[in-house]
Structures are given as structure tokens and as C-alpha cells.
Amino acid sequence: MSPFELAEPTSLSEALALLGDNGVRPFSGGTALMLMMKAGVFRPSRLVSLRKLKLSGIDTAASGELRVGAMTTLAALERSSVVQKGFPVIVRTLRTLANVRVRNVATVGGALAHADPHMDLPPLLSALGARVTIVGPAGERSAPVEALYAGYLENTLKPNELIIGLEVPALGRRRAAYLKCTTRSADDWPALGMAVVLDGDEARVVMSAATDRPTRLLSAEKILRGRLSDEKAIEQAGEAAAEEAQIESDLHGSAAYKKQLMRVYLARTLHEARDAVH
User: What count of Cα atoms within 13 Å lies in the side-chain half-sphere of residue 232?
Assistant: First the structure.
């Protein structure tokens, strides 16, 4: 691993001032970044640690919206009574994300900014209509989670911007499910992830892992509108999704294999969401 400088700012303004140059990277949990550095994929000249910034915490607004600080660990999110009560689908998803050691260190902001399409939270949060709060020299801005991603390991953040928070609309009477297929160990990267959120007679469907970024399956949603209990419509939606998505072959399976996974997992995830408790 190449030598690097470690900066530990104590304020957001100080952290932002340290970012922006080539070879400088923010450092939150570091579970993915350190692996990339050890492999020589990334050789930073400086890491800007966010550990001393007050960016952790979990609460809800009067409207029921979930608010999560970017430096909140995945384990804290998983164990939060607020999340367990109001957003059980997030808890179920986290329990199969990597392993306990990783979840104890990895942070919400880092997991979202990393832009690895195999991550479980981005497709689910996208389907739930979640947004991130981003801060930079020009001030704060809000963006949908799906707008963070430009491609494989590519986010849309500017070099001097940071994610500081996540907001998830109240689940209310919506029902949601996330399922994934791992072709090796249970905590391995998935070959496919599928998130479905049902709101009345409409479905919001977002897929990940088989594509280079979380992908909303609009053709499948159109077919399912008003026909969520129609098995023929579900089958047609799976076929449409397989045709619509640009699938990537990799070590987890060929494009043809993943297209078949899409057909199967769209139906399975939809059924699980239909059976979910409000």
C-alpha cells in the first residue's frame, strides 16, 4: 500500500476545504476503500477522515420520514428500534448484507457513495423514494438516491462534495421487499438484487448487481399497474424486465443466466412484498 497523509478535520467546512484535489478521498468506514488500496486499485495521496464530524444518528420527522446521518454504521441502522418498527424491510435487507464485522464499521454514507452496483441498500432505498443530503462549497442540495450513480464504481458527487444524510419517506401503508441471489456464499456479492415497493395498485421495481448501477424497471412497472395479483401480468413483467435491462456478464453468471434470474426474482420479490405486513 502506498504512503498517504491522513487528515482528521473536526468540522464540515474544514473537511470540504481538504477535498477536491486529485488523489484525495473522504474516509468514513473504510471497509471497501482499504481493500482497494491494498489491491493497488486506488493510491490516494490523502485520506480525509470523517470520524470526528457529528454526522451520525437516527430519528424520524413528524411525518414519519426516517432521517439517518451519513456516519451512522450499518449495524446501528440494523439494530435501531425506530427502523425496526417503521422500516422492517431495511432491517431484513441489512441482515444479509456482508457480515456483522463489516456492518459494525461500514457507514450509510460510505455505502451509498461507493457506487458498487452489488450493494443491497441502493436499490431498496431507490424503490422507497429515499433522498440524500449532499454538502459542498455551494451549500446543501438534495438528490434521489438513484441519481448518485453514473456507472460501475462511479458516483455523481463532485470531488469536493460529501453525503451528510439520508431521508426515507414514511413507509405508511406501502409494502416492500428486497431479495437477492448469491451464487456462492450467503454473504458474497449478489448476482442479482431485486427491490419491489407496492403503493396501492402500483409497483416500483429497482434491480441491481446484474447492471452497472441500480436500475428502475419501468416497463415492468407499467405492465403491473393495476394487475399486482395477476400471475400472467407478473410473468409478462418479468419478460419485459429481462428485455429492458442492459445485463452484464461477470464471475457471478452470464447475461443469459441473470436474465432468467430477473424473471424468477421479480415474481418472488413481488409475492413477498404483497405478503408483507403494513
Answer: 0
